[in-house]
Design goal:
- The chain has 130 residues and is an alpha+beta fold.
- The chain has one domain: Macroglobulin (MG2) domain (Immunoglobulin-like, Sandwich).
- It is built from one helix and ten strands.
- The strands form two sheets. The protein has a five-stranded antiparallel sheet, with no helix packed on it. Strands 4, 5, 6, 9 and 10 form a five-stranded antiparallel sheet that branches.
- About 6% of the residues have low confidence.
- This is FixH family protein.
- It comes from Amycolatopsis rhizosphaerae.
């Protein structure tokens, strides 16, 4: 093959590879489940396909006697901290919160639980894909 053909074909092959890559569906992470336990409370966090943008967090708290739950998203590697988000009750010991995560990477969700047994903070890591 001559050099001229290589210089013509190489960019075409690269362009075709990029088009194929862009057309492939991105792989979903599925439901991510993380758990944390403190001195007072235990929490199970579920997030469907954590991604850049709006994410719905489902929380199951034990014991269920919690008055308030708030979520504080932080990305320590980038120095980002978002405004705390209050969780709403969705059932006994179950809470839901929506937060917008603006970039992919490793986030830390600090859960602040306040109830008759006391106040406790639990940190749960969450990897967000682009």
């Amino acid at each position: 093959m001559t050099r001229r053909r290589v210089f013509v074909l190489a960019p075409l092959v690269l362009a075709a590879a990029i088009v194929v890559w862009l057309c492939l569906p991105s792989a979903d992470a599925g439901t991510v489940v993380q758990q944390a336990a403190g001195r007072i409370y235990q929490v199970r966090l579920s997030v469907e396909n954590p991604r850049v943008g709006v994410n719905t967090l489902s929380l199951e708290v034990t014991p269920s006697s919690v008055d308030k739950v708030r979520v504080e998203p932080v990305m320590p590697q980038m120095g980002h901290a978002l405004a705390p988000v209050p969780a709403t009750v969705s059932g006994p010991g179950s809470y839901r919160a929506e937060t917008t995560l603006p970039m992919s990477g490793q986030w830390e969700l600090t859960l602040v639980l306040d109830g008759p047994l006391g106040t406790e903070q639990l940190v749960i890591p969450l990897l967000v894909k682009g």
